[in-house]
Design goal:
30 strands, five-stranded parallel sheet, five-stranded mixed sheet, 10% helix, elongated
Length: 413
């Protein structure tokens, strides 16, 4: 009996020795990292497994821009392999994790609303080509950096993107043949405020499509090469001087949904001949929102009509049932691409698009019957070097061809 017990003890001891040891991560360094010690209660901890965790509530200290140009407590730390930004942290400061060359994993909570420039420069995460997609580096729904050698020149920021890191596009603006950018409804105001700078936007940028909730103050002011701006249906307000001084802006569309247009939003945009003010607009603030040569169009009794009367603008009444087209025409790879947006569905109507030379001679045309609900048309013509502009017509049918909208003239770019 004693031998049997002794054998059992030996077996149990052997099994215990074979079991993996359960260890807990040990904190090897820690500290505070809030921008303001009283308001921003942020702390950081680095454990012996290389995990850096930042937690608390508030903004991170901007070490890069303080008076001493100091580094963050963990910058260039080669022990860091993973970073976790917990819920409550509002931002990631400039150069925060730069030089942490072994950093391969990053988790950012939804509470973060801005990321400083170069926050992940020199990290293994940023240098790993498998983390990049078509010239863009993301961490979750945060756009961190761009590669001018790979990103398309007509770039569409994908829907769901919450934040673009500061200056993420600056290299594109300086070195790349960037022609247009589309900004989704998911983008936060904090990103938009520093995304564009008239000194950074290239001469080639000619089009901006924006669908975020707000267009901020001075968003693209002074950007003299922008020719077209499309304001999407999710935009509720256009900030003061948002497009002031965009002297080559010729095509401006605003979707239903805009409520407020602030002072000087489009002043100095002398090439806009007319603009349709959506019926949702209830407030247009101050004289000089538009150039005095711009004709304002809108519904009878609308805020646009009242504004035009108060400040001496020419105003055209638009029947709420009228079809209104907004088009672009561009040459590309041997074709002319014409894209038309219509303010309402053109079900069972006839869309007629024609090309003309500079003297007004008809060169080519297409008639497109619409058999289902549609408020957009995308038409491709074989390029004709003599084509100077296009005209877009909406007719009631191919039989009577009664106009249902004013013909729109579109210069071919």
């Amino acid at each position: 009996m004693k031998k049997r017990i002794s054998s059992l003890i030996v077996i149990i001891a052997f099994l215990i020795l074979c079991m993996p040891l359960i260890t807990h991560a040990e904190i090897i360094s820690s500290g505070t990292c809030g921008a303001n010690e009283e308001k921003d209660r942020l702390t950081w901890e680095l454990d012996n497994e290389g995990i850096l965790t930042i937690s608390g509530t508030g903004n991170m200290k901007d070490y890069y821009h303080d008076y001493n140009y100091s580094k963050s407590p963990w910058q260039n730390d080669l022990k860091i392999q993973s970073v976790i930004i917990e819920e409550g942290v509002k931002n990631i400061s400039a150069k925060a994790f730069s030089g942490c060359s072994l950093l391969t994993s990053v988790t950012i909570s939804d509470s973060v609303t801005s990321i400083g420039f170069g926050a992940f420069d020199g990290t293994a995460y940023q240098q790993d080509v498998t983390n990049w997609d078509n010239g863009v580096l993301y961490i979750s729904n945060y756009l961190i950096a761009t590669n001018p050698d790979e990103i398309p020149n007509n770039y569409i920021i994908k829907e769901g993107t919450k934040v673009v890191a500061k200056y993420a596009f600056s290299q594109l603006f300086e070195d790349f043949n960037f022609t247009s950018i589309s900004i989704p409804s998911s983008m936060l105001l904090e990103s938009l405020e520093y995304m564009f700078d008239s000194n950074k936007i290239p001469d080639t940028l000619s089009r901006i499509d924006i669908d975020s909730q707000e267009v901020p103050y001075g968003f693209a002011s002074g950007c003299t090469n922008i020719a077209r701006v499309n304001i999407g249906s999710n935009v509720q307000s256009i900030g003061k001087s948002a497009f002031e001084g965009c002297t080559n802006l010729r095509f401006l569309t605003m979707a239903e949904g805009v409520k407020t247009i602030s002072q000087n939003a489009f002043s100095g945009c002398y090439k806009i001949k007319e603009v349709i003010i959506p019926s949702t607009v209830t407030s247009i603030i101050g004289d000089g929102v538009f150039s005095k040569s711009t004709i304002l169009c809108g519904c009878r009794g609308s805020a646009a009509e009242e504004y035009a009367a108060n400040y001496g603008y020419e105003f055209h009444v638009i029947d709420e049932d009228s079809y209104i087209t907004s088009s672009t025409a561009k040459r590309s790879n041997g074709v002319i691409v014409l894209n038309t947006d219509i303010n309402q569905d053109i079900n069972k109507k006839l869309l007629h698009i024609a090309l003309y030379n500079a003297e007004g001679v008809l060169l080519d045309y297409m008639m497109i019957p619409t058999t289902k609900s549609n408020n957009n048309a995308y038409v491709v013509f074989k390029d004709n070097p003599n084509a100077s502009y296009a005209k877009v017509f909406v007719w009631n049918s191919a039989v009577s061809m009664k106009p249902e909208a004013n013909a729109e003239k579109v210069l071919i770019q």
